[in-house]
Amino acid sequence: MAPSRALRTRSFGLVLCSTSSALTYGCLEENPIQPTETMGTEDPTAGTSDTGETAGEDGLLACASPPCTVLVVSQTLDDRIDVYDVTAAPFLRGRIGTDLKFDASGEQTMGNLLDEPYGLLLDDNFLWAAIGHYPDTARGSLLAFPHASFADVVQGEVFAEDKYFAANAFSAGVLDLPFGRQEAIFLLRHPSGRILVGVFANDLRAASWPEPSELLVVDPNDFRPEAIGAFSLDLDGTPCNGGWKIAALDDDVSRVAVACDGNDAVAVVSLPGDFADLAPADAAAGMSACSTPLASGTISTQFVAPDGAGGLLAVQSQILEPPKLWSINGNCGIGGAPGDELPPELEAVRVVREPVLLRPAGGGQPPMWLLASETPEPGVLIVRGGASPTVCGQVTGLDAIDGGENAPFALTLDATRTHLAIGAGPVSNPPFAEGRGQVLWATLDLAELDSCAVAATEVVDLTEGTFVATDPRTWVRAPNMLLIAELGGS
Description:
Region (Disordered): 32-54
Oligomer: single chain
Strand order of the largest sheet: 9-5-4-3-32
Distance between the termini: 38 Å
Number of strands: 32
């Protein structure tokens, strides 16, 4: 099971916002794998904007009047990818079914039925999706969906599995690269077009995650498993076990940070200068890395984010104490003691999730991040950088988040850093939740950012009114990976 689950306070065996219970029944060898004709292709709630009027055009990734901005969401527990248009008035373009080991119930809780779409990339030719549990729980794959395969998808429709998959074979131009590794689910594009893949390399259902992770190199023009390059994070001194989030530390993607949740550390991988010219195996062989241990114990170390100046923010949290925020440079040097102070009005904050860089460091100003806050204080926090980064405020105007049921997990910003997407899901036992999670889109007022004040305006709940209890294609239990991309741009 993969990081759609989020934090587990390991010493207590407590699952918080976790899907780790989804596969507690073990893997069944003879599960049905083909979609059946009972699978619907239309979403009865789709095809309308928030004004109730039909918007947009047919063709899931079409863009008649470029540029078009799309928000792509991995519904990691519901074996589905949702695509929203957020160019103007947001609306659902359509959905992609990824339930390859078909589960008619939609619950994905028995055996190895969960396929788990996770990392996403979108370019001019393909939508790339890491599938954590296909062909099986311990062996993931990378799927490449050509834009052309979606040409006939009507607005709001589901591009169902039987459109491109049957009898363990892919069609409609969809490509499949078997990784042969456990939880190879984090994707990062290099400017050369190569794809970097973070491998968690452990079973999240286990009590510990002792196996060192890997960073893979994939040539998108060579989908042979033997062509994959692999760099081991079994580093001298402090290895990187159970690597979670990966993040580029510069626009050239010359250094990549990895949050190491298995042993509470951070690693920074340096790519060779001629990375773009090397075969994947040689590119991986030319990599080097440093690492540093952070606080350990009953704590989670799942997320890192760049600071815009070659360094990074590392985030640790647990349910009993305030989160710890670390400033680390590109050579793995720690800037100072971890920041753990909270403003009085946010003193209850404990479990936090994904950070996203709001303002890069520069011009004498510190970096600023937004940080998803889960339990027991759902919301989006504001973090000010420095030797010891600190939580200094909270984004206002996000009352649309159903804080009684859902909490933010995933955050991402558009290229202007003025629009925020939020994936918010049920905190308690997501695999068995009803499926009323949320995906939200908001405009940000940054006029008072220097004073640690950010207001969300024009907030749209993209999932409002779409839930149908009897239709798993509308369930939202773990919208845990978000991608904003531009179609038809320069």
